[in-house]
Write a structure and sequence with these properties.
Chains A, B: Belongs to the nucleosome assembly protein (NAP) family. The structure is a homodimer. Chain A is of the alpha+beta class. Chain A has eight helices and four strands. The termini of chain A are far apart. The C terminus of chain A is likely disordered.
């Protein structure tokens, strides 16, 4: 009868509702554990950031003694090389230091710092681009306003010529158009390459030019690092992610 | 003179070589710290996996009391729904339990378990698909050979009809073609959806059908969970990632 069906239906509904409440209560415990795990992992990351920072500073001091280190590493990176125009490459010869500052709670963002020597292109000595990715607010990025010197604005249409046919792996047109672009801070491929690839181990890109990509060092500047690279003759491969670098064996010969 | 130039060049080369060695030594320390950080994070993840497992088991016991829970969650998932053919959807009404086992060192892989009631489609009661992603070896996946009952092989051309025009977010053609596909275990979007999205919190998909997507429950089966869903009337939104679910307030009215 309808009545019996109705009773059974109510009974089933009640059981299902009870089960859903059990699931929800379980889920709350799981969510709390996940939250706890995230916090614990964050603390580990913070701890290691503090341990890494003095090493990065020490590394920067040594890198500073190597002419055109950063531009060479950038140009040798298979993806980053594709966005660098010739003028930008020239400009980045004046890039003397790169820094990355993770904000204290890490999840909330980071700041890239590009330090320049006095150069013909712009007045600034430091260009920064920072990412604010706190999940509670709209993600944003902002960057230093570049004070271009007259006739040297690389973002003007006159200079902003990208390399045709060389694009791959990134949607950005040039280094400085990326620098000024704040449209999608959450998925910024160039920032990711600089932060999570090049910065982690720039030496591998400095030493080993990507096959088929111009290593970007102009011959007329008598670049010392080009000689270095030749001397090392492939002793260090690009596939160094899981290996310990042993530059001693290759450099000191 | 040439001689003086040569001396200066040698001097520079030496300095650069020394700097490169310093950088390399720093880099080794940084790499070691990164390695240490990874290990520590892995230990935290392992610890929380052990804590989560009994909660997942408890959750599975409660989920078992809710008719067609998993098929409803799958069908309500905006991406997963696009690969489910009508026959597969019918077949998944017999899916009673989903499990995920992370291998002990986590990085090395995981195993998905799909438990089925006796059903018209195949003899197996458990279908597993496992991913071996140890970085030292070629990544592989393998899955249970499905013993289809005669005339019910959903991977045969007769049954393998995908929904036209509904595809988005995934390259797989159907659930069982995904299950049998081992071509790219490192970037398996469906495994990722099941493991890192649905399994983490399946209740949100069970409760809230994606707008515009058929919730996939056949009316003639008198589905109880459809009534449940209507009763809750959007009290829990799809945007629950960072919130604590409070089903009590919505279900118990």
């Amino acid at each position: 009868s309808n009545n019996e069906d109705g009773n059974e239906r109510n009974h089933n509904d009640e059981e299902i509702q009870k089960a859903l409440e059990e699931v929800d209560s379980c889920q709350n415990e799981i969510d709390a554990l996940n939250e706890q795990a995230s916090e614990e992992i964050l603390k580990v990351e913070q701890k290691y950031n503090l341990l890494r920072n003095p090493l990065y500073e020490k590394r920067n001091e040594s890198l500073n003694k190597i002419p055109h280190f950063w531009v060479t590493a950038f140009v040798n990176h298979p993806d980053l090389s594709t966005i660098l125009s010739d003028s930008e490459e020239d400009c980045l010869h004046h890039l003397s230091k790169v820094t990355i500052e993770e904000f204290e709670d890490i999840k909330s963002g980071f700041k890239l710092g590009f330090y320049f020597e006095e150069n013909p292109y712009f007045e600034n000595r430091v260009l920064t681009k920072e990412y604010h990715l706190d999940s509670l607010e709209e993600p944003t990025s902002k960057s230093t306003t570049i004070k271009w010197k007259e006739g040297f604005d690389l973002t003007s249409t006159k200079h902003a010529t990208s390399k045709p046919g060389q694009k791959r792996g990134t949607e950005h047109k040039s280094f400085f158009s990326w620098f000024n672009d704040h449209s999608d801070p959450l998925s910024d491929d160039i920032a990711e390459i600089i932060k999570d690839d090049i910065y982690i181990n720039p030496l591998q890109y400095f030493l080993v030019p990507d096959v088929g990509v111009d290593n970007g060092v102009d011959d007329e500047e008598g670049s010392d690092q080009e000689d270095e690279t030749e001397e090392q003759g492939g002793g260090i491969t690009g596939d160094t992610d899981e290996e310990t670098h042993d530059i001693q064996n290759t450099v000191s010969e």
